């Protein structure tokens, strides 16, 4: 009993974090480990390691599917960034009185079912829907056009559903920014564009990067939006995973395709991070 020590205050953070760590280990890391091992182990030959499944899935069709998913994920992240940054900038730096109302309006659509949000776009993109009537009004289309079952429908549905994931990280960073930096920039003679380029945008970069990750990763594995709005004309990585695991029950091929897809996304993210660092260095050297 002499060597027994009560937990000190320094141990309290670990105590509070440990349930989340246990949850992650049991329901994230352990299933992922089993999934990866399932793609290598041949149970018919007494747990023999084999790469035969990867030989079957290493073909052009599967890599074309993964490339389509990566392209869709990056295009979705870029489009959401173009729309999200002005919204986050306006709410954080321009709105004073009704800021809570604007934030509530952004959160409100997420209270409805994800499938309901997707089906709502059917009424907007169908023939003689709102988008078709607007395009006819501006002279883009002569006749009524069915916009569903196209890449345009998939892209607009993806951008709509993932837009809040880009807005809120940028808004959080801009909201916490010291506003006196902007005032000091104006006092030193900088115009609005230079203040944004040298002060506001560099400070908001952590939020931008967080938003890109929050959009890229789930958009890469999305299958409901491409299947419903795209009509299944293009096959994506998420659709292949669903088909392998839930339809054909081919767990080994599904596990191998999952591993290849995750590795491909990781390589794409590393390449984009290197490219982003290069662009930042060029901007610093020119600035």
Summarize the structure.
By secondary structure, this protein is mainly alpha-helical. It contains twelve helices and two strands, in the order αββααααααααααα.
CATH class: Mainly Alpha
Beta-strand segment tally: 2
**Structure class:** mainly alpha
Gyration radius, in Å = 24 Å
Structural account:
It is globular, with a radius of gyration of 24 Å. Helix content is 74%, strand content 1%. By secondary structure, it is mainly alpha-helical. It has helices spanning 12-38, 52-57, 60-94, 99-107, 114-125, 130-137, 151-176, 180-187, 192-220, 224-229, 237-247, 251-286; strands at residues 41-42, 48-49. The chain has a single domain, classed as MetI-like (MetI-like fold, Orthogonal Bundle), CATH 1.10.3720. It has a two-stranded antiparallel ribbon.
Give the helices and strands, then pairings.
Layout: H1 12-38, E1 41-42, E2 48-49, H2 52-57, H3 60-94, H4 99-107, H5 114-125, H6 130-137, H7 151-176, H8 180-187, H9 192-220, H10 224-229, H11 237-247, H12 251-286
Antiparallel strand pairs: 1-2
Helix pairs in contact: 3-7, 3-9, 7-9, 8-9, 11-12
Annotation keywords:
287 residues; MetI-like fold
């Amino acid at each position: 009993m002499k060597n027994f020590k009560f937990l000190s205050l320094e141990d309290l953070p670990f105590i509070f974090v440990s349930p989340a760590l246990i949850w992650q280990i049991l329901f994230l890391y352990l299933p992922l480990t089993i999934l990866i091992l399932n793609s290598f182990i041949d149970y018919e030959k007494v747990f023999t390691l084999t790469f035969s499944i990867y030989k079957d899935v290493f073909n052009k069709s599967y890599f074309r599917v993964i490339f389509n998913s990566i392209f869709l994920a990056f295009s979705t992240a870029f489009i959401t960034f173009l729309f999200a940054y002005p919204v986050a900038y306006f709410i954080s730096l321009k709105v004073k009185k009704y800021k809570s109302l604007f934030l509530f309006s952004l959160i409100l659509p997420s209270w409805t079912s994800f499938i309901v949000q997707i089906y709502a776009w059917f009424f907007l993109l169908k023939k003689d829907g709102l988008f078709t009537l607007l395009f006819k009004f501006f002279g883009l289309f002569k006749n009524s056009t069915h916009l569903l079952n196209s890449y345009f429908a998939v892209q607009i549905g993806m951008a709509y559903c993932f837009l809040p994931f880009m807005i809120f990280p940028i808004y959080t960073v801009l909201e916490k920014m010291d506003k006196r930096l902007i005032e000091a920039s104006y006092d030193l003679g900088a115009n609005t564009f230079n203040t944004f380029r040298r002060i506001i945008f560099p400070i908001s970069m952590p939020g931008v990067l967080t938003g890109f990750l929050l959009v890229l990763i789930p958009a890469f594995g999305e299958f409901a939006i491409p299947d419903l709005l795209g009509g299944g004309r293009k096959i994506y990585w998420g659709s292949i995973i669903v088909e392998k695991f839930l339809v054909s029950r081919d767990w080994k091929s599904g596990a191998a395709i999952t591993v290849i897809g995750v590795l491909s996304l990781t390589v794409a993210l590393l390449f984009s991070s290197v490219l982003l660092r290069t662009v930042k260095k060029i901007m610093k050297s020119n600035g």
